[in-house]
Each structure stands twice: as C-alpha cells, then as structure tokens.
Amino acid sequence: MTEKKQETQDISRRKYLKYVAAGVVAVAAVGGGAYYYSTMPPTPAPTATATPTMTATATATETGTTFTGPNQPPLYFDIWLALPDIVKMNMDNFNAQNNETGQVSVVSGDYTSVVETKLISKSKIDMVFGTPVQAVRWYKAGWLNSVDEGPHYSDIVKDIYPWVVDLMEQPQGGHLGWPYFVGGDVLHTNDKMLGQMLGRTPEASDYPKTWDDVLNQCREAKQKGLSNQPFLPEWYAWLGGLPSYIQVQCYSEGEFLFDKNFDPTFDVNTPFADVLTNWKAFVDEGLAPTSEFATTEAEHIAAFCTGKYLYSVQRDYDCYSFNDPTKSKMAGYSHIVYPMPGRTHDAAALIGGLFLISNNKFFDRDAWQSFRHFRLIEHFAWKDKNGNYAAKNYQNVFPVWMGYPSMNNDPATRALWVSKGWMSADDFDNNTKMIEGTKVPPVYKGCIWFQEWLIGSGGVNDLVPQVMSGKIKVDECVTTLRALAVDLKNKYS
Amino acid sequence: MRGKGYRRVSDASYAYLLIIPLIIFELGLTVYPLVYSFWTSLHNTNLAANTDKYVGLANYIHVFTSSATLNSLQLSLVFMITVVISSVLLGIGIALLLNEEFVGRGLVRALVLLPWAIAEYSCAIMWSGIYNQSYGFLNGLLMQLGIIREYTSFVTPAYAIYAVAIAYTWHYTPLGAFFFLGSLQAVPQDLYSQAKIDGAKVFRRFWVVTRPFMRHSFMIVAILSVVQALQALDLVFVMTFGGPGVATQVLPYLVYRETFATMSLGLGASLAWTLSALIIALTTVLFVLLTRRR
Fold first, then answer.
1. Å from B133 to nearest chain A CA?
2. Which of A213, B106, B210, B268 suits B149 as a labelling partner, its CA being 20 to 30 A distant?
C-alpha cells in the first residue's frame, strides 16, 4: 500500500489568530447590523423645531387637542390582499393631508399568523386589519390599543351604528378598533333557475321564509331535473366559511350559542342541533356537495357563478360577482333573500374587517407618536381632513356596506351600485335594513377562545364535517362541542 | 530556517480552522433554535392564554394519547406510503422510457421536469381546479368520455388524502425519474446484448441487469420521498386546509394549527419534535435496509 504524503503548509499562530479574528468580526458586523436595523426604528432627522411635548405644542381646537412635530418614523400599515389599490390611495391622501410618512405593505400568505408573529416580536407594525374573533385575542394579549383615546372618538361614536360600538366594547375596558366594512353572510338566489322551477318570473314572496323552505325548494329543483345539487352551502374551512355560516343560521333561528358569561346556551334540544339536522338532510338527499368542506372562498364564489345552484349562502357583497356577465352564468338574476330565513330572522351582519392599531404602551410611544397613530386609524376608519369618508373609495368600486348609517343610506351610493348592475335597488335597501337591525352576539364581547372553539382541534370545523359524512351523530357533535366550550372557558380563565 | 511560532498543519486542519467562524454562525442559527424549540416543548406556552409553565413531558404524553394526533399520524403514514410507492414506480417507468432513443427525446425530458419546477403552491391551486366539483377539468373530461353522468366530488372525507397524494406524486415524480435516469445511463449496453443472447426476456433483463445499477438511486429517491412526503404542508394547506373536517390533517398541518391558529407553542413544538423523530426513524430504517450487503 503506498503512503500518501500529506501536503502541509506553514502557519503561524499570529496568522491563524488574524484570520479567525477577521472572520469573527465580519460575522459579528453582519449579524449585529442586521439585528440593529431590524429592531430599531430609523432615527428622526433633526429639524429646527424642538421635540414636541404636550405642553409645548398642544393647541386646543374645536374638535380637540392637536399636536405638531416631525412625522417620523414612518407609520406602517400591513394589509391583507383585498383592494390594495384603494388602501394605497387612502394612505397617499393621509400622507398628503397630514404631511405624513405612512407606508402600506401587503402581507401574502397567512395574514393572521404573520401579523401575530410581528406583534409578538414587537416588529415595526402600526396598523393592521383583523376580524373581531382575532382582535379580541390580540387585545387581551396587550398588543392592540383601545381607540377610546382618539381625538375624534366621541364624533365617531355619534356617527357609527350603535351596535358597532357595543360590539367593540371589551370587558376589560376600551374599544377594539373601528370597522373598515360591515356585513355578513346572506342567502343568494338564482332567479333564473327559480323561474324555471316556478314557470314564471319569481317574486320576493317566492323566496324561502325558513331553512326548511330552502330544503323543500331544493328538493323540487332536483326533482324537476334543474339541478343535481341545488344548494351550495358555505362550508369551506376558512374562518369566513363554515365557522361564519353556522353562526348565520343559528342566529337566524334565535340561537346565539353563548351567553354574556360565555357559557354555552346550546344543547341537543336547541336550534343548534336543528341546524345540523337541516344540513344533514341536504347531504343525505344529495342536495348539497360535501366537497365544499375542502374548497376555498374563491372557489365557492366561482361555483355559484356557474349557475348550477338554486341557492347559496355567501357574503352580501358577492352579488358583485354573481351579477357580473363576464363571470356569472346567471348575471342579473341573483338576489338577496330578505328577511333571512329562520325562526327569528336575526341577521349576523357582523363586522367583516377592523382597523386596529398596535398598543402605544407596548411599543413605548410618547404622546406625539400616539397621536399620529390615532390620526392614522381615524383617517382610514372615519373621515379625512376634508371631512370625506375615506371608505367611500371602497364603495365606489365594490359593494361593501360600511359602519356608518349615513354612508349606507347615501342615495348616490345606491344609484351607483344599481347602475353598475351589482344588485337591484331592493337588494340594496334590504341588506341595509339587515345591517341596521343586527344583534350583537354576547360571545363577541371579550371571549378570547371563541376562535379556538370554531377552528381549533376538536372544534366546529373538525366535527361538523364528520356529522355530514356520517362518522358521528348530530347529538354527539353537539354534546362534544358543548364540553369543548366548557373546557376552553376553564383553560383561559 | 523558520523562527519560533511556526508549525506545520495539514491542509485539512487548515480548512477546518478557516471555517470555525462559519460553524459558530451555524450553531447560532440552527442548534440554538433547536434547543430552544425543545425547551419550549417542555412548557405549556400559550400566547393567547398568556401562560408559560414548565410541564415536563406532559405535551408529549398529550401528543401520543390525543385522538387528533393519532389521526394525523395515520394520515401522514398513508400519505407517505402512497406518495413513495407511486413516485418510485412512476419514476422508474418514466426513466426507462426516457432512456430509449426517440425523436424529440431532449424536449420530452425537459417537459417531464416541469411538474417538479412548478412551485408547490401553484401545483396545489392547479389540482384544486382539476378536482373541483362544480367546474373541474377532471369532471368535465370524465363527463365527455361518458364515464360519469353527473359531476362528482373527488375530495370526499374517505378519499381526500389520496387525492392530495396524487397531486403530490405528480409534483414530485420527475425528481426521482431523473435520479433513476442517471443510473440507467451508467448501465453498459453490452450487458443487455449478452442477456438477450442468453435468452432473457424484458422483465428478466430489467431484474438482472438494470436493477443492480439502480440500487443507490433507489435508496436516494426512497429516502428523499419519505422525508418530503412527511413534511408536506403547502399542498395540503392550499388544496384542502386540512379538510374536509380532519380528513387531510397530516402531522405538519397539525403542527401549523396548534402553533399559529391556537398559539399553543409548547404543544406545537412537541408535535414538531415528534414528527422529526418519526422522519429520522423511518429514514434510518430505510438506510439500513437499503445499504445492507448480502
């Protein structure tokens, strides 16, 4: 065996130490610099104006105290992917009117997880979107600031729907945020198919009054060969799908699921069980596709646009798609059923999205920086400096209802939406009435585990599909969900 | 003559000395998070409930006794077995075809690689559309061929895991195929000639001549398939969101849900460690079995 002579080099201790030190310094410089720039906000540029304090620069005005000072660091608004151009437009207006430095960035992927990670790690995040079930958790964790300290808080309270203020109020004090739109799930019709079924043009009186009426009409449609599965339920697994739909139908039957102490009010003899039994009937008779449990919101909307279904539970604003001739095979024939079918017809026209600001104390903000944040949220959620509702920009391009009666009752908005063909005048009026008459479910006022009951392990999202597939019975599902609610309440108290 | 302070070191030692800073950097980025993750798994850390209590192995006991975990474990194993078997068999078949001489072989080889080149997210969106009950391509095709009379659901609670596995196999097979193709290129052609002279039929030639050369690529593809399949999250997340119900709630998805949806970091970390242990155990067994000499 030949010996392989190993090549060697001369190396001195000095040379070695030099190389290692250079490497360590380089690594430390890169790592330390990255850490510094990721956690420290940019230092405000020095100006001739002294650093503002409440006493030095506060000015009393008719609407409250105002401040002035350098508009640094930038205000960061992380948004989800819904009409980002409108958000950017509103931010540009805010910057121009207030000489501000606000920035918008779109979060792709799982918005909630990304935002929570940023809030936990105290990343530079100033305003976010959220739904009430999420916001309640973030508020309890101390990551959000109450909007009560805003300079225009009282004006907004006078202007907004009273039920919004009620919904936002938290048991530990303060209000969560302000809505950027309100609305909920409603029952949409396919009047083209309904007309074929009835043999004449449908009228509002033909629409179902109860969920059993929906079932019976679907049976008739199937029997007449108009549709194989006439009902498209909102069963997809996202928070806005099955968790939302089950609330819609329960509330319309007078079942609010939890009382003000967050104890479950449902059991096997209450409307909650009736709702599940109703859904099971749809499945057993082949009137609804169980594949809906594995779809997404976009697929759910597109499916109803095919015109193959008689009724579907969808967001109120989705009439925009259903009546669009470029997307829908029943354009011009889709309407919103009013009142909501059910025993009590209570509508769950809840808040679709909230503007939320991060906690001023948590982020060590002084009075001036806190004021900038309130100014930001009030601009977006209410009016700009010229007295115009910023959210009007949404309503000009998309049929979303807002938290302010004056916006929803605006004849110009009504005329615009009707002229665009998004909905009929009756649909506009009826949905506005549903929103005005919304009742606030007690569980939305401070229950931090409600989301977990809906989408967590062993929750609604897990068990309801198993009922529909026949794996478990309705009674077992109701009993298990009731026990889960009790466990969660104990776990978080 | 060199002065004091100089000594001879080998090239290898010199190289190690130079990469020590990088090793330190890597320890900070990899080892520290692993240790911290394991430490978290020993705590009841729930951000929503604002708790952070040391509970020892309680999270692991919950993992091994919870019906949700056992369901996820079962689904993960079913998914893994389906993907590994189908991607290996398909990969071998595709490699054998691509190893033959035919016009346009280069173009076909490039096209075969496309499913692997597409991002898993895009693959999931595409297959969701294919399976869609209301307007899906598969329903339309089967209807046109007269195989079905009405549109049907392919993502039912009973078969959803297989539907997702098929999508994942489609995405993953080209990688294995090219590993196998590389092995096939190394087979001397005169061995086939000799086998033919000896009267060996197609399958016999494959078994005696081709298979031994594919042993190592088979090991690589099998181990990679096991690891990738057990870690698959993107496809499940986008295609089914773990549904219908819990029908596709594989272990990685359960880790995601516990960690991010319910903010139970302790339980999520223990699930992640359990999954890692499973992957290491399975790949070790595979490695031992496939490298064992007769």
1. 7
2. A213
| pTM, 2 dp | 0.84
| pLDDT tens digits, one per residue of A191-211 | 999 999 999 999 999 999 999
Of the candidates A110, A141, A457, which has its C-beta nearest B50's C-beta? A141
> What is A185-348+449-492's CATH topology?
D-Maltodextrin-Binding Protein; domain 2 (3.40.190)
> Which helix (H) or strand (E) is A175 found in, with range?
none
For residues B26 and B49, what is the distance between their CA atoms, to the nearest angstrom? Answer: 34
Model confidence at B277: pLDDT above 50:
yes
- How far is Cα A290 from Cα A296, in angstroms, rounded to an integer? 13
Give strand pairing partners of A464.
Answer: none
| Residue burial A247-281, b: 16+ Cβ < 10 Å; e: rest | bbbbbbbebbbbeeebebbbeeebbbbbbbebbbb
Residue A17 carries which side chain, given as an amino acid letter?
L
Task: Classify the complex by whether its ipTM is higher than 0.90, answering yes or no.
Answer: no
All domains of chain B in start order, with CATH: 11-41 (no CATH), 59-291 (1.10.3720.10)
Residue A184: exposed, middle, or buried by beta-carbon count in 10 A (0-12, 13-18, 19+)?
buried
At position B7, the amino acid (one-letter code) is R
Q: Which of A12, A120, A289 has the CB atom closest to B6's CB atom?
A: A12
Distance from CA of A489 to the nearest CA of B (A): 11
Q: Residues A69-181+352-405: name the CATH superfamily.
A: Periplasmic binding protein-like II (3.40.190.10)
8 Å CB contact between A297 and A242: no
pLDDT of residue B292: 72
Q: How many CB atoms are located within 10 Å of the residue A315 CB?
A: 21
Per-residue pLDDT of A17-27, as tens digits, reads 777 777 777 77
B276 has pLDDT over 60: yes
Nearest to A8 among B9, B131, B260 (CB): B9
The per-residue pLDDT for A103 is 95
Same fold, A69-181+352-405 and A185-348+449-492: yes
Closest CA to A457 of B49, B66, B44, B79: B66
Cα-Cα-Cα-Cα torsion B248, B252, B254, B257, nearest 10 degrees, comes to: -110
Say if CB A243 and CB A444 are below 8 A apart: no
Under a CB-based contact definition with an 8 Å cutoff, are residues A355 and A177 in contact? yes
The answer, yes or no, to whether residue A5 has pLDDT greater than 60, is no
Q: How near does any CA of chain B get to the CA of A67, in Å?
A: 35
CA–CA separation, A147 and A382 (whole Å): 12
**Among partner residues B5, B10, B263, which is closest to A6 by beta-carbon distance?**
B10
Distance of alpha carbon B104 from alpha carbon A87, whole angstroms: 51
Q: How confident is residue B7, by pLDDT bands cut at 50, 70 and 90?
A: low
- Choose, out of A114, A291, A322, the residue to mutate when testing the contact with B (most B CBs < 10 Å): A291
Counted across chains A and B, CB pairs separated by less than 8 A come out at 161
B11 with A299: Cβ contact below 8 A? no
Domain boundaries, chain A: 69-181+352-405, 185-348+449-492
Residues of B in contact with A113 (CB under 8 A): 260-261
- Mean pLDDT across chain A, nearest whole number? 88
Written as six digits, the tokens of A435 are 């929103």
Closest CA to B235 of B117, B94, B122: B122
Residue in B132, B172, B123 with CA at minimum distance from that of residue B152 = B132
Residues of B in contact with A33 (CB under 8 A): none
- Could A9 and B9 be called an inter-chain contact, meaning their C-beta atoms sit closer than 8 Å? yes
